[in-house]
Amino acid sequence: MLTIDQPSAELKVAEGTFPAGTYLVKRDQPYGRLAKILLEKQDFPDPNLRTYDDTGWTMGLMLQAEVTPIADKAALDAAVTPVVEARADGAVTAERGAAVLVVPHHGANAMTTLRYRLKALDVRALEQPHTAGGTTFPAGSFVIATTQGGRAVTDEVRAQVQTLGLDAVGLPSAPSAAMHAVDLPRLAVFSTWGSTQEVGWVRHAFDQFEVPYDLIYKERVRRGGLRADYDVILVPNQGRSAKNLVYDIDVKGPPLAYRKDDRYRSLGMYGESDDIRGGMGLEGVLELRKFVEAGGVLITLGTASYMPPEFGLTRNVNAQRPSPAFYAPGPIIEAEVAAPAHPILYGYQSTKMPVRYGNGPLLQVPETDRGQVVMRYPGGAASVLSGLMKGADEVRNRPAIVDVPVDSGRIILFAGNPCYRWQNFGEFGLLFNAITHWNDVPATVAREAPTPPQ
Q1: Does pLDDT of 445 surpass 70?
Q2: CA distance 316 to 160
Q3: Where are the beta strands (DSSP E) in 297-357?
Q4: Beta 332-337 vs 352-356: how paired, if at all?
Q5: How far, CA to CA in Å, does 203 sit from each of 27, 44, 196, 270?
Q6: Backbone angles phi, psi at 41, to 5 degrees
Q7: 337 phi and psi, to 5 degrees?
Q8: Is the torsion defined by CA of 417, 392, 376, 296 positive or negative?
Q9: Which residue, of 187, 219, 305, 310, is most buried by count of CB atoms within 10 Å of its CB?
Q10: What pLDDT sits at residue 433?
Q11: Helices 154-163 and 110-117, interaxial angle, to 10°?
Q12: Which pLDDT does position 443 carry in this prediction?
């Protein structure tokens, strides 16, 4: 077992001063090399190397948490308390007589859980940083009136804030700042029948952070009427191309049923089909188009983001593939913010952040629509933070996230995968924000021309 400690007092070493409570992982223990492997940068000096799996897994970068290597051996002698359970206890301050409670958004994924646990309450989000009562609240912070529907809700909010390890500050009046309601969407997660692993990891994240959703397959998409049941449809990373996503399993031989019966009693728990072949087809793509035109939000992750450009759902956004010389087996690279006020970026304070490169499309947006780019890859060798990327110049200034208004709806394309297995927690918030702020379109995002009548 790897032992993790917390200094009992302020820790002063050659590398700096760290407050009491900082997590300290000493290397002079049997599993000290494991900590080194998990926390250090993965360096691949040979660009011609080929690997079986991911080449970047530096935990500090994946969590977007600051990790400082300490060579000063004085750290080994520091008085510490072993960490038995890592738990953050939340706190509510200045709540007596408060008209509103403000929960600062510092990037915790638990903010999404909080919103769903308080689904019966009116919750609003600050659209810009705001200072009140001596505290500066970042954009995206929740503002919750302490009296709603004629009843006091302070105790209910306090209980959830504390349980989730968040903080809240009571204010005598609501902030005089621009806010919008955080309306929870009716969410569907689309899965092909032939590629379900990455979909499963997204579902696991949603289950753990208490985000409810319907799992849908080609049968539901083809049936149409999607907007009547859903506000947001998420298509996780799946399929190696747009065609593979749309047409899925080849139509060969007899039908392939996937149903529970006397022989296969464990099937059909999450979905059933008389024939899992054929994918959603063009009929399904047209239904997704109708969904967006009617005001729905379609979100695609990683390789799934090839589909909207290549099938014409986003007419002005193109999706290209890198050259054969390009090679990027799961490195962690730098991304830079292009639209800092966009709700997708709530809780992210830096203009640059580490993200896992997921071999999605090289997106291309016309200069006239650059306002649709939320985040981009600066590219180049210096942007590779951990792992191996050969040909890093090919991603230079390519969009990482694009928010494309289409007719009455929107299509949000992630070139990478912000919910990669149970690893890049620091990126989960990008997806969570896209879902919880699904109907909050920044005024700066340019809108494509309406689709001409058919």
Answers
A1: no
A2: 43
A3: 297-301, 318-320, 332-337, 352-356
A4: antiparallel
A5: 36, 33, 10, 12
A6: -75, 140
A7: -75, 130
A8: negative
A9: 305
A10: 98
A11: 150
A12: 60
